[in-house]
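Reopening this ticket.

The earlier resolution said the output was attached, but the attachment link was broken on my side. Pasting everything inline this time so it's all in one place.
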Amino acid sequence: MSSLTKEKIIVALQKLSIFLQNPSQSFEHIINSAQNSNGWFIESEVKKAISALNQMLNENDLHTWLADVTLVETPKKIGLILAGNIPLVGFHDVLSVLATGNIALIKMSSSDDKLLPALLNELIAIEPLFADRIVYVERLKDFDAIIATGSNNTSRYFEYYFGKKPNIIRKNRNSVAVLNGQETVEEINSLGNDIFDYFGLGCRNVSKIYVPKGYDLKHLFEPIEVFQPIINHFKYNNNYDYNKSIYLVNGVKHFDNGFLLVKEDENFVSPLAVLFYQEYENIQEIEQILNQQTEQIQCIVSNLPLNIDKDIFGFGCSQHPKLWDYADNVNTIKFLQNL
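Inline output:
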């Protein structure tokens, strides 16, 4: 293969970032038509994902992320089984494979099989040396390692079929927020993005909040009222109506602001259109709970100095990870370099 260097990779990704700021007409068409094959991928949500990628690919962060990376001399074939829960969610895995000089064997998700190939085509147009390193497959075979993202159920399937090869196999995770009751209206409004971006379908979306005992939920409801139009999306509305009817029929205590159901629950995984909450007596109690459950948590949103072995993001930042904010806290670059 022709020589791909770290400098060429960085320049190409910078140019891709510039492209994302002013996409071509053909790429705009793909953005606008994405919802035809996936009803969740409406234009505004796809553009949120593109904006987040653009922020991620800034020059300083690219240099920082790749500072200690040495491209492999002999590229390995890395099988990628991508998720499709939110737009372009698999891009970082592809990027990590390419940034280490390896070959990405990509098994697309049927839920997101238009946007990523279109974006990677733009990357190849910018740097043709990537062309031989991006391969789409229907069935994975002849690979050296695998990175697979799925549910708790599919992870067992992945373990069975791919467990003998070096692997990163991801399961279900959710994100939580810890409040102390002193948050500003602006901070809670930003928390609304952590809850509602991509309709709450991402593992980085907040599905549960921890609040001090006696917390008045009006401090949550009033600042997030601006997100009310989400109820106009038919798929989200269907989930809201379904969960509301279940709670009403079963007499389950809950709060309802017309577009979000809030229920007291110790679990992390809330249904779509539902936010769980749990009260606490002191911060140490929450630190203990979360440190014991790190395997279920993707990230934590808070402005508190929590003593927790997990990434903590400011309000509104959970869906804006840096290049080094790895899924499940597993360093993909290090994994690939150690093969």
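Reporter confirms the inline version is readable. The longest strand covers residues 206-212. Residues 6-172 form a domain with the Aldehyde Dehydrogenase; Chain A, domain 1 fold (CATH 3.40.605.10).
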